C-alpha cells in the first residue's frame, strides 16, 4: 500500500549538513533569526525553554525531541530571565566544538544535540507548507538515538558517509512525523493522514497519481458525500483536494524531469495528463517555466 508520508519525504531529498552539541549553565538565552532550513534538537540533560515564532512556548526536558521543518525565528533560554544573545544562523560560522551558553565553567544545567539539514527538492517549500510549523515529541527514546547516530556519522570521513547520512535523516524525519501528536490546530498533511477517511483519499491520490480523479470519486472512496468531503479535506489538510493533487503531480513531474531519460509525453502520462501539450500548459502555469526549459536548467 502506498505511504504518502514516505513518498513526500523521499521527494524532498533531505541530506544532513550540520550537527552540534549545545550546553548551558546559569542565566542564559539565545535568539536565532529565521533560518528557513529544517532544524532539530534532542534534549539529553536538564531543561530549557523554547519559544518559536507563532507557537506557544514550551519547556523541553531530557528525552524530548523537536523538529522545525522550516525553522522560523526562535528563542531558547534557561528557566530564569536573561537578555538574549542574538545569532543569525545564515552568517554565523559553524562551531568546531560544543557550543556553551551562560556560565562558561562548571557542570552544565542543560545539554542537547541538534543541527540542521537541507531539502534537495526545489519544490520543498510547497510540501513543507503542509507539515506542522513545530513538532515537539516527548517519550520516544529512539529519536534521540537516531540524532546521536546522525551526529556520529557526520563527524566521520568514512566511505559512504553522505549516503548513510541521507538515509539516517530520512528515517529521522519519518519517525518524527509519525510520532507527532495528531489533531494539531494548524491544518496539514499529518492531520489528513490521521483522519481514517481522508487517509484513504490521500493514499488514492498518491497511489493512482496518473488517474483522472474527481472530488466525487475521492469522496465515494472515503465514504463521504462530495460536499462533506470537500469541506473536511480543505479544513484538515489546508488546501482543497484538487489543489493537493495538482501540487503532488507537479512535485513528481519536477522530479521526473530533473532525472532525465523520459520523453515529455511519458512524464505527462505518469502524472495524469492525456497529452504532452496539456501537461506543458499546466506545468508552465504552476511553475512559471515550460518543461523543456526546466529540464535544461536542471541539467545545467
Task: Name some characteristics of this structure.
300 residues; alpha+beta; Arc Repressor Mutant, subunit A; 2 domains; 12 helices; 44% helix
**Shape annotation:** globular
Segments where pLDDT lies below 50 for 5+ residues? Answer: none
Number of helices: 12
Strand content: 15-25%
Order of helices and strands: HEEEEEEEEEHEHHHHHHHHHH
CATH-level-2 architecture of the largest domain: Sandwich
* Oligomerization status of the protein chains: single chain
Chain-averaged pLDDT:
87
Overall tally of structural domains: 2
Counting helices, strands and paired strands, the structural category is: alpha+beta
Concise account of the structure shown:
About 45% of the residues lie in helices and about 20% in strands. By secondary structure, it is of the alpha+beta class.
